[in-house]
Amino acid sequence: MATVIQNNGMKPLTNGNLNHVGDVENLENGSVHNTMENDIYNCPDVQNTVEEQEAQPEIDILIRNVVCSFNVRCHLNLREIALNGSNVEYKRESGMITMKLRRPSATASIWSSGKITCVGAETEDEAKIAARRTARTLQKLGFKVRFNNFRVVNVLGTCFMPWAIKVVPFSERHKQHAEYEPELHPGVTYKLQEPRATLKIFSTGSVTVTAPNVQAVGEAIQHIFPLIYEFRLKRSAEDEAALLAKKRKTRNRRYPDEYTDQTDPVVEHEEMAIDSDDNSD
């Protein structure tokens, strides 16, 4: 909408109100507009808000391991699985068989009672895919498998704070929940009741979280961040180089070549008997 400058120096706004303009001649070069912007930016409240937004770091939470368990509700002959199965290892002393999958990368521990646990997945969806592929493999070996009682048991997540942490003062401040025994473990063990999680806090700024699910891992990090923020410490050049090398090594990680590819698609509902009371499936 075009704006007309009246002779009395009053500038009509787009909403019909009048705004007094002191210097009408400098309106064309935008000096008045710039002055108003500077006044707004120099306001203490606005400056504090901008500084808080700039100072707020971004924390990346990496899920390293998702452990799940399920039951096939039938007796499993471990010797037959060891003789006819692929990518399996029979551990007689433990009374179990381990079966390795490549996609998703996971390892299943199988007991003769029909209980199976899968470790190594990086998401809850991958854990369920690995569990169903394990059940499908057992079904192909002739067992009457029924995929039942699937649940995520444990999730391991890690994150790196943008600064080091003074673990000794932190453990002394939070004695009720924190335990620090440098002779036994280099990190502080911090236990949360809600959400239920256990955190390992290291002086390098690394935080490891063990929780029942992925959501609890994120909530635990949100809970611990303001507590350790008070004890932040600038990293040395050696620590920065070591942390950068560790991140690069993690990024370039490759799956082992000895795992054999499991190309079978995820079994559908019609291909395997599934109990109707399995709400998680």
Q: Which consecutive residue ranges, at least 5 long each, have pLDDT under 50?
A: 1-33, 49-54, 254-271, 276-281
> What is the CATH class of the domain at 68-153 and 255-274?
Alpha Beta
Mean pLDDT: 77
Alpha plus pi helix count: 7
Q: Largest sheet, described in full?
A: 11 strands, mixed
Strand-residue fraction? 25-35%
What is the CATH topology classification name of the domain at 68-153 and 255-274?
TATA-Binding Protein
Query: What class, by secondary structure content?
Result: alpha+beta
CATH architecture assignment of the domain at 68-153 and 255-274: 2-Layer Sandwich
Helix coverage percent of residues? 25-40%
Number of β-strand runs: 15
* 3D shape: elongated
Radius of gyration computed on alpha carbons: 30 Å
- Give me the CATH superfamily of the domain at 68-153 and 255-274: TATA-Binding Protein
**Ends apart, CA distance between termini:** 59 Å
Order of helices and strands: EEHHEHEEEEHEEHEEEEHEHE
Oligomerization? single chain
Structure characterization notes:
The chain is 30% helix and 28% strand. With 281 residues, the protein is α+β, with helices and mostly antiparallel strands. Among the domains are: 68-153 and 255-274, 2-Layer Sandwich (TATA-Binding Protein), CATH 3.30.310; 164-233, TATA-Binding Protein, CATH 3.30.310. Strands 3, 4, 5, 6, 7, 8, 10, 11, 12, 13 and 15 form an 11-stranded mixed sheet that branches. Mean pLDDT is 77; it is low at 1-33, 49-54, 254-271 and 276-281.
